[in-house]
Amino acid sequence: MNVAIFTDNDFGKVNGVTTTLAAALEYAPDDINLRVYTCDEGGAETGDYLSLSSFGVGIPFYREMKVYFPPFRNFLRHATADSIDVVHLTTPGPIGLAALWVASRLGIPTIGSFHTDLAEYTRILSGSRGLARFMEWYMRCLYQRCERILAPSDTTRDMLVRAGLERSRIDIWRRGVSTVRFDPAKRSQALRDKWGVSNERPAVIYVGRVSKEKGLQMLKPFSRFLEYAGVAHRVIVVGDGPMHVALREECPDAVFTGTLRHEDVAVAMASADFMFFPSRTDTAGNVVLEAQASGLPVLVSDAGGPRENLRPAESGFVCSGLPDFVRRAGDLLRHPRKRREMSLAAREYALTRRWETSLEPLYDSYVALGSDRTATLLQPQPSSERISVVQ
Q1: pLDDT for 128
Q2: Looking at the chain, which terminus has fewer C-beta neighbours within 10 angstroms, N or C?
Q3: Which domains does the chain carry?
Q4: How far apart are CA 178 and CA 34, in angstroms?
């Protein structure tokens, strides 16, 4: 079986989508051939990756990120040559539209996986509920054309149902983590010394886009309240985005690393003491699993998908707001023994969420869609004589 995965996230980007798709390629069974279809400015082509050269524009309210105008016919030509059996749509962006067009022209089924709540992002970044409603309508129209939809969490499935999609067509495909790439053994004392952290002054790390939709307006008061309480700590921010400059000014004592390579993110995580992740919009939050695989307890919001990716009160805490984040963080900062116990529990939990098992629902969906198509093609067609009698 040959599957084309269409995404607006070329592999030059490091985020939850590209991490997930790279894992899907790595662990695909021998009888399923996957190929990513995307675009970037330069173009690239390997056996399992096709990025066509295209013109990109910055996303409104987030100019640092670009989307590219897909060459529809060129994608169709490649899909035909690759003998694609199933199209996998991972994005509501322009390349998602190309995915639906290619599937329609080839007469093959489409499976859609949901990764980003763009309607909520639009509301937060633009401040316009009208634009958010339009984005919700657009995403509903797009995903309604998929035979099956995969959501990364129960919370996300409920959100999609409220948006008007049928629950019966939505399955859960939870994210996984590489427990080899993310490992407590990668802890670096040299990096901790560079950060100026220690057992007496632990490192609280955030990893992800430095943007408003991630809840980072909470970072300054979070750190200030801990300071007022006399709790020593240093905040480490890994990533980049529109809030980067403002947060550096608001939190002069924090360390801002900017964007790191994936392997360097693993070292940074293992070198911290626990993770602070206040996003209420993430549908999954791959970094929450990566932090636990690195041996970090995690503090996450009580909204969104990340709260489904930990063992509450064992490998981390689900926090209901700023006071709760501060209280839980203060408890971890003051009690090294508790941090160590939760660190072991975090790693143990991550070992149950490896990519090898978490990807099974995705591969099963490919096989099911491909089997349905084969069965349809093998059904005997009514003869012209029979049709004339019915008429």
Answers
A1: 86
A2: C
A3: 2-173+359-378 (3.40.50.2000), 184-350 (3.40.50.2000)
A4: 19
